[in-house]
Amino acid sequence: MTELVGREVRSRDGERIGELGNLLVSLETGRVQKAVIEVDTGLFGLVDEPLTVDASELTFSPLDETLTVDIAADEVTARVEQ
């Protein structure tokens, strides 16, 4: 799991939105429940805002070693701004 932290995360429409910041694991089941994405915001994406999503919303592509979250880029922006 630690190899995933820091990997690039893209929206479902292919736009880079940030990096995987952390994974939250259930102490009862030992399974990953949530993922924290550090979303690039601010001028030139220099500020990172955390966005927590269900782990089921993420997929990993071994071809380019990136993660994709099943959320459109504009929705990501709206969620972070809440």
Quick summary of this structure?
It holds the Pfam family PRC. Residues 2-77 form the PRC-barrel domain. By secondary structure, this protein is mainly β.
Structural features:
PRC_barrel-like_sf, PRC-brl_dom, 82 residues, mainly beta, PRC-barrel domain-containing protein, six-stranded mixed β-sheet, SH3 type barrels
What does this structure look like?
The protein has one helix spanning 73-81, and strands at residues 8-10, 16-25, 32-41, 47-54, 58-61, 66-69. The protein is mainly beta and 82 residues long. It has a single domain, classed as SH3 type barrels (Roll), CATH 2.30.30.240. It has a six-stranded mixed sheet with strand order 4-3-2-1-6-5, covered by helices on one side.
Distance between the termini: 29 Å
Structural class: mainly beta
What's the mean pLDDT score?
Answer: 89
Shape: globular
| Largest pleated sheet | 6 strands, mixed
Tally of contiguous helical segments: 1
* CATH-defined superfamily: PRC-barrel domain
Counting structural domains, the number is 1
Q: Give the % helix.
A: 10-25%
Question: Helix and strand layout, with pairings?
Answer:
Blueprint: E1 8-10, E2 16-25, E3 32-41, E4 47-54, E5 58-61, E6 66-69, H1 73-81
Parallel strand pairs: 1-6
Antiparallel strand pairs: 1-2, 2-3, 3-4, 5-6
